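Illustration 12: Acid phosphatase.
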Amino acid sequence: MWKIYRIILLWICVILIDLIVNAEGSDEELVYVQAVWRHGDRAPTKLPYPNDEYKETSWPRGWGEITNVGIMQMYELGQFFRTRYASFITNYNGEDVTMISSKSNRTIASALAVLRGFFPASGQEVWLGNEQWQPIPFQIATTNAMLKPTSFDCLKYELETEKENEMLVRNINKKYANFFEFLANVTGFKMVDFKKAASLYNIQREIDHNMTQPAWVYQTWSQFDNETTIDIIKNLKRIYRISKFNSSQKARLRGGLLMEDWISRAKNVSLGLPVTPRKIKLHSAHDGTLLALMYALGVGNNLLIPYASCAIMEIYKKTNNHTTVKFFYKNGTTVYQLALPGCPSVDNCTITQVAKAVSGRTVRSLQQLNEICSSASSGYIATGFLTIGYFNTPSVAAMMKINIRNMAHDHISNVWKDLSNS
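Figure caption equivalent — predicted structure in token form:
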């Protein structure tokens, strides 16, 4: 008899604990979601190296286009959203959900695949037999500034990044001099440096698609801890890519516009003001978009962004009308909740605390970004442009020409003309 009482008592305790846990979890309600992802698996944007045997015909949709693997990755991301937000939104409604994509084909295709997984047609939405696909509209960005920031011309960013990374580039080129010479010989490039070696990461895309590689790709290097050629290339790619975002200024100039967009919308939600869309804002973008955003948030992890990875901001309203935000990062397979600097805990962070934490890494508008990007012009040109050696790099030289040509002020253009004719 005593054993029966003990079992009953144990079950009562389990039920009470469950009720307590549920009660604690029910004091908040999801009221808004913002998400941005990297597109799915894609082909290289061009021939990885001159001697590469795999030409564009090896990729069914052509250079830079999404692959079948990538389409499935994005479809599964859409299914992830459908499952995660099943109690928040069920069917598509244009007032509740909007999506915007960068201008790239691979992000547009990714957006379509996500929408197919997120909002399959059901009931009265079905328009063709058993077909579950339904046409769902989305927007395409007219500028690269927010969703493909690495393709947005910004003189200030180029100059400061060039200066900040100068020592890193010099050290890498020195450390890997013999390795780079080897790469030049086997790839057919006339010369290989840090940047060129990082671009050979495209070989990994071929490996991922079971394309047989020459022996040199897997050659080991005793001076580099017996790593293979491709492993060294992948690490160089990581270092090179991260070096474009890993400071407050870099993060601001590349991710500040999207960060401000998210913060502004979250503030309006917390104040109970109307927002567009009403429930979910989605962004189909690139690895650079996510890297810039994560470093702007102060949660960069010095790793590359895998295909179909996603950053999510969820906004909750508690029973006391207190609003909190939570950030998550899905790296293709696993979902991590992010701890933001300046927040007391991952589950108790207000939008005010987030805004304060990122205040120096946001940009209010495209106009402000353009002003910041061109603000380096007058200072650098007037005082430092004559030091030609500092600017004697292809990226900075190109950016100088592009931005100077587009300067709004005539007197700056005249300075350039005078310098060009001297």
